[in-house]
């Protein structure tokens, strides 16, 4: 735990930064989306679903933005020489950065969850505390994964503009904003099942590809906890599909599309996907960061 | 692993290339554990690159480095626990106070120093809780020096320690170097402030275009180029680093 003082310094830097708490306020603002359909579908657990609302786009964008400069900024300014001149290995530096950022941003996200939970408790009554805790834990794992990806990019890039481009063009846009249309195109082009008059008729690989994106893996997991259905659509979309299937022929759930779903489409697989996204980019960055010149 | 060594720094044929540029070229030098070694050279001579290899910021293309008997690459963390380093072209953490900077270094080193005592040594006793973002360049340099002193290091590596300091600050650095020498701390430093180097160093090495072109006491360096006894260190430095003169010097003068 030689890296603990570095993690503590990073944590303090994040929690003293006003932008972090502006981010918390935005999470609450965008998470709170009252919905008659939602309440009718899952009752007081709609409070828990508010967490899923902010985790779709705003959470990844905010965490990536607040993390991707953690190493590149210090490399450019020269302050990275301070931890690197101390009895820390380069692995310690990476771990300290990730642990500190995760703790700081995790605290910010936790406050947003608790604020929404408190309001929902008053407004809708008691929700399932177990489901709430489970969704919060999955959301914190999601934060770990996002910080890991951002720190990995920060560790391997030499110029701030490269890091910015990598975060937006290489991660946020393809994986969080446009993954679904990309996979739909891939499916239509290579997997041979297309939408037509009989509706969209995808196979198991399509569902698998969809949930390989970290945001979708998170949604699958939290849908599972909320008990709404096995799909990458958020809970509100699932409820809409369930209520009016004829109106949403292009939006499908595993349960309705596949008679005997393969094991790899089990919702718990989302956990492995999130862990994979936390470990693989970071592992590659670790190899690069610990070899050769660091400054 | 903690080894005792009479050599604080031992470089053998150290070379660092960046693409087609040779920043450090076949550098061999030894710094004893009872001396203050001045590492001189014009801008771009390769001094900071050499120091970055001692700290394992950068890794040599060829050759070996041993610092306090340890390999900077394989034993880097243990080695740096025994070193105090004041880097060149660094930046402090603007939002952290002087005390928090010291606390970070002290805790990482597992040392028992009192931040206030260290800050008093460098003349920052009255700004202990001020954020570093409000400091002048000289105050930043004093704080960085206090950070280098944390953990009672066996070797101080000071890269341009006089940068941005007023005359009081320069004197403080000089006094601290003398104090540390009395506590058996070896000191290796690079500087452009030649007059100060003369006042604190036992031995000098002059690096030019990545190569060590001269090494020895000030008197030895004077002798090697036949300089007058009253020649200043600046005269000597210019003589050694003047390419036309250097071309006539065979190898390293010792």
Keywords:
heterodimer, A: 295 residues, mainly alpha, 2 domains, globular, B: 254 residues, alpha/beta, six-stranded mixed β-sheet, three-stranded antiparallel β-sheet, 10 helices
3D structure, described in words:
- The complex is a heterodimer of chains A (295) and B (254).
- By secondary structure, chain A is mainly α.
- Chain A has two domains: 4-174 and 278-290, no CATH class; 179-270, no CATH class.
- Chain A is 73% helix and 0% strand.
- In chain A, helix 4 runs antiparallel to helix 13, helix 5 packs across helix 9 (129-156) and helix 11 (179-191) runs antiparallel to helix 12.
- The longest helix of chain A has 35 residues, at 90-124.
- Chain B is α/β, with parallel strands linked by helices.
- Chain B has a domain at 93-152.
- Helices cover 35% and strands 24% of the residues of chain B.
- In chain B, the strands form two sheets. Chain B has a six-stranded mixed sheet, sandwiched between helices. Chain B has a three-stranded antiparallel sheet with strand order 2-1-4, covered by helices on one side.
- Chain B starts with 6 loop residues before the first strand and ends in an 8-residue tail after the last helix.
- At the A-B interface, helix 1 and helix 7 of A face helix 2 and helix 3 of B.
């Amino acid at each position: 735990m030689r890296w603990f003082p570095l993690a503590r310094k990073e944590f303090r830097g994040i929690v003293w930064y006003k932008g972090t708490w502006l981010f918390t306020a935005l999470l609450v603002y965008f998470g709170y989306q009252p919905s008659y359909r939602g309440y009718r579908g899952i009752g007081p657990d709609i409070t828990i679903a508010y967490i899923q609302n902010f985790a779709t786009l705003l959470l990844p964008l905010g965490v990536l933005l607040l993390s991707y400069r953690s190493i590149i900024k210090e490399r450019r300014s020269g302050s990275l020489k301070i931890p690197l001149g101390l009895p820390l290995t380069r692995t310690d530096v990476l771990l300290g950065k990730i642990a500190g950022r995760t703790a700081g941003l995790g605290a910010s996200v936790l406050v947003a969850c608790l604020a929404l939970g408190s309001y929902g408790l008053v407004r809708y009554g008691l929700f399932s505390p177990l489901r709430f805790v489970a969704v919060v834990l999955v959301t914190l794992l999601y934060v770990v994964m996002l910080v890991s990806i951002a720190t990995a990019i920060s560790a391997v890039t030499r110029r701030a503009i490269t890091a910015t481009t990598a975060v937006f063009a290489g991660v946020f846009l393809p994986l969080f904003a446009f993954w679904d249309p990309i996979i739909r195109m891939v499916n239509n082009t290579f997997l041979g099942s297309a939408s037509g008059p009989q509706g969209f008729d995808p196979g198991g690989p399509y569902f698998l590809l969809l949930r390989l994106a970290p945001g979708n893996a998170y949604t699958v997991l939290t849908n599972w906890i909320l008990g709404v259905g096995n799909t990458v659509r958020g809970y509100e979309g699932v409820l809409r599909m369930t209520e009016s299937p004829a109106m949403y022929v292009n939006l499908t759930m595993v349960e309705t599309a596949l008679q005997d779903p393969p094991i790899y489409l089990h919702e718990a697989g989302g956990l492995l996907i999130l862990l994979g996204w936390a470990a693989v980019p970071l592992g590659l960055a670790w190899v690069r960061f610990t070899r050769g010149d660091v400054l | 692993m903690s080894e005792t060594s009479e050599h604080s720094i031992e470089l053998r044929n150290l070379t660092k290339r960046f693409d087609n540029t040779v920043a450090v070229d076949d550098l061999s030098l030894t710094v004893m554990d009872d001396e203050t070694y001045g590492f001189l050279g014009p801008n771009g001579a390769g001094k900071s690159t050499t120091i970055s290899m001692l700290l394992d910021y950068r890794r040599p293309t060829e050759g070996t480095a041993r610092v306090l008997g340890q390999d900077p690459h394989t034993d880097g963390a243990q080695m740096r626990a025994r070193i105090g380093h004041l880097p060149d072209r660094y930046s402090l953490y603007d939002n952290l106070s002087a005390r928090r900077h010291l606390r970070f270094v002290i805790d990482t080193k597992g040392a028992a120093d009192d931040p206030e005592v260290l800050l008093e040594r460098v003349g920052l006793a009255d700004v202990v809780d001020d954020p570093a973002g409000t400091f002048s360049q000289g105050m930043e340099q004093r704080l960085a020096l206090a950070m280098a002193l944390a953990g009672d290091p066996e070797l101080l590596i000071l890269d341009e320690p006089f940068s941005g300091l007023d005359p009081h600050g320069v004197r403080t650095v000089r006094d601290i170097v003398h104090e540390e020498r009395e506590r058996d701390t070896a000191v290796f430093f690079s500087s452009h402030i030649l007059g100060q180097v003369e006042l604190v160093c036992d031995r000098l090495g002059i690096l030019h275009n990545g190569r060590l072109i001269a090494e020895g006491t000030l008197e030895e360096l004077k002798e090697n180029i036949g300089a007058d006894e009253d020649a200043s260190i600046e005269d000597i430095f210019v003589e050694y680093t003047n390419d036309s003169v250097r071309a006539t010097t065979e190898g390293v003068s010792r």
